Amino acid sequence: MFYEQSGENTQPSLPMRNLIGLPNQQQQSTDKMPGGAVGGVSVVNYDYEQGKSSRAILIGLFAAFGGILFGYDTGTISGIIAMKPWLAQFGKATGNPADPYAITSSQQSGIVSILSAGTFFGALLAAVVADWIGRKLGIIVSCLVFAFGVALQTAASGIPLFLAGRFFAGFGVGLISTFVPMYQSEAAPKALRGAIVACYQLAITIGLLMAALANQGQHNKSGSSSYRVVIAIQFAWALILGGGMMFLPETPRFWIKKDRLEKAGNSLSRLRGLPATDPAIQAELAEIKANHDYEMSFGEGSWLDCFRGGMAKRTWTGIWLQGFQQLTGVNFIFYYGTTFFQQAHFQNAFLASLITTLVNVCSTFPGIYGVERFGRRKLLLIGAAGMAICEFIVAIVGTATGMGSTTANDVLIAFVCVYIFFFASTWGPIAWVVIGEIFPLKIRAKGIALSAASNWLWNWGIGYMTPYLVNPGPGNAGLEVKVFFLWGATCTMCFVFAYFFIYETKGLSLEQVDELYEKRTARTSEGFVPTVEFARHEDVGVGGGKDVAEMVEYAGKGAHGNVHEMV
């Protein structure tokens, strides 16, 4: 940064203010670095993200619609495979009048988990696509792939084609699960970024609710239309998201990455509701550009760069955060909830699944509010503790009283709902918020892709192994309600992980998160005040290699005469 030295009240020089396009009357706030000024120089912080937030909010909320595809597709399968017409079409005769058709545990595992296999590969490929054709066009392509998978499932009359459809639909969902949080994080103003990205999880829960309603409305109908209608509804979700994205701007950070400054300025102008020539737009653009240029001075971000130096901590944080989100066990309820409630002798297992899904939707709203009010780290700790307690209570009561008893069923449904509240208000949305924030621009696509792929890898593993863990019979563990001991243990691990590895990024720009990782540990990250401004000189920024002390040393050399530059 460039400063005129005037004792304690150090401020940007008038020529420098004109150079970077800041109006002379702009409000300033001077904050010293921790421990006092460095070399008599204090740091001046500016809020570049001015303009109308409503535009960015609406754009971010529409992009969150991708969660509908995610949630609906994952939510329908538990009801579809329990529908009698579907079992008659795809299952085998059992000779039991009560359950004339059934599928094996291996078929059930394959049908449920194949979607997650597709999402895993889709999430990884999204990194390449995002940096090639952009975030916006990537979402549109994802919708086309998803629609192709839906078409195969709708037309299927045998398990092989149904599996192929599940895979391609999953591939599209995997692409979307990387593109949407990335698009939202790069388009949203920092003060609202957490809440906007959290709306992606809200959309997922709404998709799950729509799936439960569709299953509830169709499961008693006869003929193949009972399940084909449930599947075909997804064409509408793909059309809405893909069609709507055609009218939204690409993110300015993608255009910066492509060195298309004019397009980046126009994109930021649309997002902030200000003219592209406005000083605030020019200043924010300069900040993003300077940071990216500094990152790129160390070379292009490769897949290996995600695991080198300081980036390794962020990458593993994203990977394990998404993995632990799945290890909370929530998808056990949404994938196998209907079947599990039937085994627990609920009179209406479909209704029980609908109740848990309603709780999931309603409980996401406190998370959207809390993520900016209380921060990411604190909510993840509270959520992990709350989920662990609920899981252990369900496991202990269910084991002590036996499945099927009135007491066990009352405790099961009550504490499963409380458990879902803790998940939906904390780990559900915040895991997506965090992975959208912690990566620098040059590896952001790859970092988010690896994190999302981890989510889907664990999703696949849990979806595949759950029937073997829960179901009774030869070759199965037959844990039934005891499986909640496992989920309770993994939720305890979630707490430990969040305590040691999750940084508090509330209120920071994506560029300022780099400085946070340079200066603090996860346990000391709360209350961090950034002191770096990237846009004061094109050769300096924060991101990949030099630490802050080295940059200060560079600044102290006085390369610009009487003007000092400090980063």
UniProtKB/TrEMBL annotation:
Membrane protein topology class: Multi-pass membrane protein
Protein name (Swiss-Prot/TrEMBL): Major facilitator superfamily (MFS) profile domain-containing protein
CDD domains the UniProt entry points to: MFS_HXT
Similarity comment: Belongs to the major facilitator superfamily. Sugar transporter (TC 2.A.1.1) family.
Keywords from the UniProt entry: Glycoprotein, Membrane, Transmembrane, Transmembrane helix, Transport
Major facilitator superfamily (MFS) profile domain: residues covered: 59-506
Ranges in a coiled coil: none
Species for this entry: Saitoella complicata (strain BCRC 22490 / CBS 7301 / JCM 7358 / NBRC 10748 / NRRL Y-17804)
SUPFAM superfamilies for this protein: MFS general substrate transporter (SSF103473)
Cellular localisation: Membrane
Gene Ontology MF term list: carbohydrate:proton symporter activity; D-glucose binding
Membrane-spanning residues: 56-82, 110-130, 137-156, 162-183, 195-214, 226-248, 318-337, 349-368, 380-400, 412-435, 447-464, 484-502
Location, primary (coarse class): membrane
Gene Ontology BP terms: glucose mediated signaling pathway
Cellular component GO terms, alphabetical: plasma membrane
